[in-house]
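Hi all, long-time lurker, first post. I run a small reading group and we've been trying to get comfortable going from sequence to structure in the token notation. Rather than ask abstract questions, I figured I'd post a concrete chain and ask someone more experienced to write out its structure so we can walk through it together at our next meeting. Sequence below, copied exactly:
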Amino acid sequence: MLESGTKKRVAKKQNHIVFDKYELYTKAVQSPEGDVEFIWETYKEVKKKEAKTFREDFCGTFALSSEWVKFKKNNKAYSVDLDPEPMEYGRKKYLAKLSPEQQKRLNLIEGDVLKVELPKVDVVAALNFSYFLFKTREQLRSYFQRVYESVNNEGIFLVDVFGGGQCHDAIEDRTKHKKFTYYWDQTGYDPVTNEALFYIHFKIGSKKIEKVFTYDWRIWTIPEIREVMHEVGFKKTYVYWEGTNKQGRGNGIFSRTEKGEPCLSWIAYIVGEKA
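-- Answer (accepted) --
Happy to help. Here is the structure in token form:
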């Protein structure tokens, strides 16, 4: 039987919210199940058949790859990242929860996407604007060239992109979630280089944890990305633009278009088709 002092300590521990930056990040900005469904349906729309193999570049905790192998019983995924910390987290958080058979279909590659040997796949995705870390056209072209060479002949390359007049301002957006608040902090935009610094902060209870994640990026535009895709060999490129709800905010539904809207802030996907 627990003594009264022990009971109090146990109760206090149960009420304490553990700070898990990767879990908060996933809840705030990712939707692995929805992303996998969108990628799978987009490939089927473009190629008129089902994708089986998928590579997640700059994968972090590889939550997306984990969902890919769960989505269809024959799906196979490859996850590439040079940072061992999030990959180790993913091994404990996601890989360990997969069945032994699913684990066999998920392959982890720790290394630089510009240097490691890359497997041939149906779909390559670089999401969460991760490729914005490439600040020159030459660097971006080198990465896109590697993707082109490692995509199957009937493969596609999918990236997301953001923009709008608001992304040139120093702002801090706040989004409240059930047990925490998420902050997207944008500062230091330079119109000469199109570079900017971004931070993610979290607030749990009354405590705000600053600069949990830092991003030093160049903001690439849709025309630039499409041009470089074509330069390295992608036959066609498509833009999937997000629709809006009644409040004028993004509704999470992306449709192919050749004409966007002059929104203050927008998100889109770009798909490169190899052949």
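A couple of things your group might point at:
The first strand starts at residue 53 and ends at 57.
The longest helix spans residues 32-47.
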